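BUG: 3D viewer hangs when loading the predicted structure for this chain

Environment: internal workstation, default settings.
Expected: structure renders.
Actual: progress bar stalls at 90%.

Input used:
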Amino acid sequence: MDKHEEKKLEAFVDRLMADAPLESPSEDFTKNLMQQIEAQSQKEAFQYKPIMSRPVLVGLFVAFSVLMVYVISQYGLGDGTSWFDKLTWEPNFKPLWGWLENYTSSKVLVYAVLLFGFLFFVQVPWLKKHMDRTAMLE
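Structure tokens produced before the viewer hung:
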């Protein structure tokens, strides 16, 4: 646009603005607005709901108690031997970790693992702070 058209447009807008009456809010505008905001914030409030309801928790507690009573009745408590002694379990990790006996790693690999571990533990708090900040903006 050239300057002549801009001046015409500005004069036209000035005339429209001069003709338009100024509107003022009602006397209790702020009070009404605050009431609406409070009503919306109360509707959106987070209501705590447990993951498992009370009957489910009671049922789990009863089942666990029954299991404990069964184990105690089968293996006993006071005869001098514990029921752990009756279980035979000998872990043998030799075949599982035997390949590590002759394994050597380079310093570069060790430094890379340490660096990525450090960066991971730096990144987690940074991302949490970022998520908290963006959640507050929404």
